[in-house]
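Review box. Two proteins, two foldings.
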Amino acid sequence: MEDSVESKWTLKSDAKSEPFLYCCSACDCSEEPFHGKVFRNRTKARSMSMPSAPSSAKFRRTQSLHGPSPVTTFGPKACMLKNPKAVMHIQDPASQRLTWNKPPKSVLIIKKIRDTSLLQPFKELCIFLTQQKNMIVYVERKVIEDPAIANESFVSIKKNICTFREDYDDISNCVDFIICLGGDGTLLYASSLFQESVPPVMAFHLGSLGFLTPFNFDTFQSQVTQVIEGNAAIILRSRLEVKVVKEYRENGSVEEMSLVTNGNKTMQYQVLNEVVVDRGPSSYLSNVDLFLDGHLITTVQGDGVIVSTPTGSTAYAVAAGATMIHPNVPAIMITPICPHSLSFRPIVVPAGVELKIMLSRDARNTAWVSLDGRKRQEIAYGDSITITTSCFPVPSICFRDPVNDWFESLAQCLHWNVRKKQSHLSSEEEEF
């Protein structure tokens, strides 16, 4: 690392042959890292009005999946245990392990809304965390206000739960780790709640598709206990930092999370799966220019273009004909959607490059952009979309390790598609 780069991190070690550990300036380095041995009594404020610490540090863009140099943190307390035997800075994916600077005391539960099949698992998890593990549980307010959950059986649980509202309350400094109950969409939603450092995410497969959710709920108590004790492998899923710049228009509405500079409005997002630019409701083909580090690469003429992370390569991108990339590969994938030209096929570029998408001069209509299927908005002439690798990955907790989990998820999705096709064919035969 260059000496000119300022860093607020310190390297912590001792004379014994213990693994090295990076600690941030927010940690109390007088305490030894927590490995499930001792719990210290401490209190934590439940108030949602706690102001978040200002982010004054400006991190340079990096091509590593490990975030800001030398290493990033995941929420207030979690970081990755450094492997002293690793060659260079990037570790073997199978050796990436979770550790805690201090024992975790708060957890955020993300539950799929209006799904009655999740009521019992949600109740069991809340009772286990609050009563047996003595943890502070955060849940989104609309989950507690769900009519299916507002009955007498949840009265004793609701009084021990802290609630928050999306886009209103900042919980980035309140949550030590996250538990998702549902399908892959719950992990995407959890990612959208944290626009900077993301706490470790433990995802249980209780939805329709479980590519990103490796845990089964049958043995949740032992699995959650292992995570609390810091005994788990993690995979760092890179995100995309997306800036949507719109020219000032007199009739334009000012949206939230926007900054007005030089008359233009800039909105910034963190995206885990993909950025999709398409033609929207227009019957004309979309026509957008694609720039790579300031150089015009091609003009995409077709239904649109997908810019995805390796995690998102198994989502919309693979349906559009792209290949699948392991999440530990530092890359960005660019995939055209039904291209009119035969010369443009899916390409993979290094993580850290800067992509820019604008409407072409020959475009006959505007375009639309969506980010992880949300925040859909129109892109007109003069607007631009800038995409690069984010410094804040999503640390996803593994069931076994990053390699085995990924290949097992591929096999599960293949079997799921085969079963779905067989059930569809059998239903057609019955109708016939």
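Next protein.
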Amino acid sequence: MDSISLFCTGALLAVGLYWFVFILGPAEQKGKRATDLSGGSISAEKVRDNYNSYWSFFRRPKEIETAEKVPDFVDTFYNLVTDIYEWGWGQSFHFSPSIPGKSHRDATRLHEEMAVDLIEVKPGQKILDVGCGVGGPMRAIASHSRANVVGITINEYQVNRAKLHNKKAGLDALCEVVCGNFLEMPFADNSFDGAYSIEATCHAPKLEEVYAEIFRVLKPGSLYVSYEWVTTDKYNSENAEHVAVIQGIERGDALPGLRSYDDIAEAAKKVGFEVVKEKDLAKPPAQPWWSRLKMGRVAYWRNHIVVTILAALGLAPKGTVDVHEMLFHTADHLTRGGETGIFSPMHMILCKKPHSSS
């Protein structure tokens, strides 16, 4: 190959990489670029080891039921995936039903605003975001309701990301982020005017334990709404395909075990809540929530090429490729769960703490 051909080939590769990373690479909300991918609080050279450690958790099933083991497992997961989520999905780590004529971002925002509308808070009141991630929902809810939102996440890296995004959005006066375990929250009894969790309490080994903590910190008469990940009435535990899909979702999303839809209200009542309303927001006439995953398959392959190149160049941790591939397979399981109707990520339950509680 002569020097001119070599130069042209090199230039084309450089332009192609720039196009992949800087034009197609940023997330919907420009908060993370491919060149900034990391392992969260995990040092780059330990990302692959932590990824292998994460997978080994599922080879020790007894630990999945041990509450003291799960927080570290979930923390590791979010160190591994937070940057990839932000880069490839956006700042709201959850699903929402598709809305004809609306963008994914608008559909997500409306889904979040509905949560705070359900708990009927007023401007200036203090509400709790249980499992806030990097704070996408928190910012949408604070902007919509003008309530003061306190978010809690177990992952310190997410706390720092959320604080950065809050400041950039000009919402840091309304949004506070705390690092902590939602099974042992550092908040006083009866201190919040309302609470919500959006696809977060699925990480709890026992749902009643996190519900009990939320119940404790809510003021009497206050409302709490949760969008829960569940298996539906269509799930058949004797169907091998169903079992494989659900186990794939559990392994790829750091879940100690998916619950059945009919366990949710029971857990809420057990800790003292009154159940005001319960509805699977994924059921028709809602449009498919998984359509975004199917539409994103081309983006996945584009992103996987970027991650592989960046890892080969030493610009991203080598374990990032493994994590990205895991999330792709998980997306397939999620899509199949939605198409078959055996899984829902948005089983909504609205609860009230009775006025008689103290």
